[in-house]
Design a protein that fits this description.
Length: about 550
């Protein structure tokens, strides 16, 4: 047994498996040519926001389009930052937008799939096995340096005006410890980390290819990075992701460009472990436009709560709206495609990594809302009803009970102005619907009225009486409007708006004024969906009750 093997046994006496065991256990995937295996690998340290969701969307859609595999892996080795119920929150957020992993972790924190477990803290033995193997080969070693000793090394490097600051070369004081020294430190109870022995020296350059950014060149990594942490004996991201991506057969890693400078380090680890490296695609941060500075900036959890997936769910943005918007910001040519194919299934559009924005997608809430309005306007009334009800059962129980009680009425209500050539686009998200349509229901109609200026209150009773007398829900819209104009004409209101504008002093108002009076009496509002459709839905008796209540209110 050589010195490296002795040190490996001193450090990991309880690790009896070998890398070969796991290579055999996690067999290579048998997938069709060109199939991509992607993963969304969040840390349960906070909520999922639009930036994370976009990255997840890339992973999901690239795997789906290539007939590959998309899996969810939870990277929870940073124990200090992990929050309670963070994993459940991630799974729930993704499910809210119909993103379901082929393999991964479910809402009960159970792993499913042939490469389980998919929670990194449950894979500790795997990481230690590979770490032990690297130590055994002389490619990694234990470091017992204290914080004070590391600070002293840094101070010495600064005094020597070193180009590179870090733990490397002659400054890596634990690189060449003997088995006896390691054993002595262990018996003394000294905490340690495992460091990877970098094969590079200061000044070395490395080249690699990024799917989005093309050929890249940068300084190679010379630092002996930590691959197993002291207290937890768990790996940081660099080591864990290399092992997991290899064993799980990841072909394509899509991640934030903050990891771009880490690629040299990751390449070294892949080579040392004997793994083929996956292709990398480093995407730019999703950004917001900062009104204060006039500049774009990275999404902030503190400043931009509306970018949280949980906010979107609570507000009731439909899955279709979120997905449509993700397509819009994912590829620069999607909007052009959508204009040419307004009613096509968006899945017919091919998302490509090469068409992603290098400068970073801009999250524009106004644009997102416009996309959502458009998506909802194309839904059937039945679908709108079901989705609003589903949302309201969780977030507005009163609204849900009313909708369930008046199901057929509510569906007809949502159908108003929905099937026109230019459908009404008033709903942005489901939480809007109660305010937009609550007045249709007696339980929510508050008896408050938006009054017009200079209303001829003395005419209202005559207008209402005549309207109820002549109302016929079997006529078409044009016939109905002629009836309204006739009533107004008899009472001194101009039947033609253009004529009224020419001679306003000769009339009390115009035919639209009569409609406004009726609209206010029935709904309390001056702006609503199509008035004739509302009247047909209400029926004469309900109209009579609303009109009488209005007259009583203004006396």
């Amino acid at each position: 047994m050589n010195n490296y093997e002795k040190i490996a046994e001193l450090l990991f006496p309880n690790i009896t498996k070998t890398p070969e065991y796991y290579e055999k256990k996690y067999a290579k995937r048998n997938l069709p040519e060109g199939a991509k295996v992607t993963r969304f690998a969040p840390s349960p340290t906070g909520y999922v926001h639009m930036g994370s969701l976009l990255t997840c969307f890339y992973d999901y859609i690239i795997a789906k389009q290539s007939h590959g595999v998309f899996f969810l892996r939870i990277e929870d080795t940073d124990l200090e930052r992990t929050i309670d119920h963070g994993v459940e929150g991630i799974v729930e957020d993704l499910a809210s937008f119909d993103i379901h992993a082929d393999e991964g972790v479910d809402e009960n924190l159970q792993s499913y799939g042939n490469y389980a477990p998919y929670i990194q803290t449950q894979r500790q033995e795997i990481y230690l096995t590979y770490a032990k193997d690297l130590v055994r080969k002389g490619l990694a070693y234990p470091c017992f340096c204290t914080k004070e000793e590391l600070q002293a090394i840094r101070q010495k490097q600064e005094e020597n005006k070193e180009v590179q600051i870090g733990y490397y070369g002659e400054y890596a004081t634990c690189r060449n410890l003997t088995p006896e020294e390691v054993e002595q430190n262990l018996k003394a109870g000294k905490p340690f980390v495992i460091r990877f022995k970098s094969p590079a020296k200061v000044g070395d350059r490395v080249h690699f290819y990024d799917v989005l950014r093309g050929e890249q060149e940068m300084a190679d990594n010379v630092n002996d990075v930590v691959i197993i942490k002291s207290k937890s004996l768990l790996p940081p991201y660099n080591f864990a992701h290399a092992i997991d991506d290899h064993l799980m057969g990841t072909t394509t890693v899509i991640r934030s460009n903050e990891w771009l400078n880490s690629v040299p380090e990751h390449m070294q680890l892949f080579r040392a472990l004997g793994f083929d490296q996956p292709e990398y695609c480093h995407v730019a941060f999703v950004q917001r436009f900062d009104q204060e500075t006039g500049q774009k900036r990275k999404i902030s959890k503190r400043k931009d709560p509306e970018t949280a997936v949980s906010y979107m769910v609570k507000a009731g943005y439909p899955t279709d709206s979120v997905m449509e918007y993700l397509y819009t910001i994912a590829n620069t040519n999607f909007e052009e495609w959508r204009i040419a194919n307004p009613n096509a299934n968006r899945e017919e559009f091919l998302i490509t990594l090469e068409k992603m924005s290098l400068s970073g997608a801009l999250f524009d809430l106004d644009k997102f809302n416009d996309v959502s309005k458009n998506v909802i306007s194309k839904m059937s009334a039945e679908k709108v009803y079901e989705l609003v009800l589903q949302w309201a059962k969780t977030y507005d129980v009163e609204w849900a009970e009313i909708l369930e009680k008046h199901r057929e009425f509510a569906i007809k209500m949502f159908a108003i102005d929905r099937y026109n050539q230019k459908p009404r686009k008033d709903i942005v998200k489901w939480e809007d619907t109660k305010n937009l349509y609550g007045y249709f229901f007696d339980e929510l109609f508050d008896g408050q009225y938006e009054m017009e200026e200079n209303m001829h209150l003395e005419d209202l009773k005559d207008i209402f009486d005549r309207y109820l007398e002549h109302f016929d829900d079997q006529v078409d819209n044009s016939q109905w409007f002629e009836m309204v104009k006739s009533i107004g004409c008899d009472l001194g209101y101009c039947p033609q708006i253009k004529e009224y504008k020419k001679n306003p002093d000769q009339y009390k108002g115009h035919c639209g004024t009569v409609c406004t009076y009726i609209r206010i009496a029935l709904t309390g509002r001056k702006n609503t969906p199509d008035l004739f459709s509302i009247c047909k839905l209400f029926g004469k008796e309900k109209m009579r009750q609303r009109m009488q209540a209005f007259l009583a209110k203004i006396k």
